[in-house]
Specification:
It is a single chain. Helices cover 40% and strands 22% of the residues. The protein has one domain: 3-Layer(aba) Sandwich (Rossmann fold), CATH 3.40.50. The two termini are 24 Å apart. The chain is an alpha/beta fold. It has four helices and seven strands, in the order βββαβαβαβαβ. The relative contact order is 0.19. β1 and β2 form a beta hairpin.
Length: 162
């Protein structure tokens, strides 16, 4: 039965699956896929009476070599402000829907994957939910770099939503 203490065989090992979640993290970048992932994360948090963390990791490393320190400071201020507005909107929506939610915007780290993973582990997150991009042809077999990094290195379950 889904959601109970049933086990399944994964790579030859018996492991507990979906026994319940106490803290669900949605890693959102504002994309269409992230919006779909948010709906799934919110639904799971509601179903399990779990806390929901809406998190955005703002990446600035890719623009560092191309901008002056003053431009970087202005961009950081804009990017963080925009991310906070979006996160606060999702948190408000979750609370309106009866979910205990909080928001976080991270902007000081080497990569979004590292920031998300460190936060999730420090906060005792049970499940990370993230969207991936829908690509055509051969590329659709590949996950986005953030999704792939989370799946490869997370201490907890990761749910990828298409």
């Amino acid at each position: 039965m889904w959601g109970s203490e049933d086990t399944t065989t994964l790579t030859g090992q018996n492991r507990v699956v979906a026994s319940g979640f106490k803290k669900v993290l949605i890693a959102s970048d504002g994309s269409d896929q992230a919006t779909k992932a948010f709906a799934v994360a919110e639904g799971l948090a509601k179903a399990y009476n779990a806390k929901l963390v809406v998190l955005t990791a703002v990446e600035l490393a890719s623009i560092l070599p191309r901008v002056s320190p003053a431009e970087l400071a202005a961009f950081r201020e804009y990017a963080v402000g925009d991310a906070k507005t979006k996160v606060e909107s999702l948190v408000l929506q979750s609370r309106t829907d009866g979910v205990d939610a909080k928001g976080e915007v991270l902007d000081k780290g080497e990569s979004p994957v590292k920031m998300i993973l460190e936060y999730a582990e420090a906060e005792g997150v049970d499940l990370i939910v993230v969207g991936t991009r829908g690509l055509g042809g051969f590329s659709k077999m590949l996950l986005g770099s953030v999704s792939s990094g989370l799946v490869s290195h997370a201490h907890c379950n990761v749910l990828i939503v298409r």
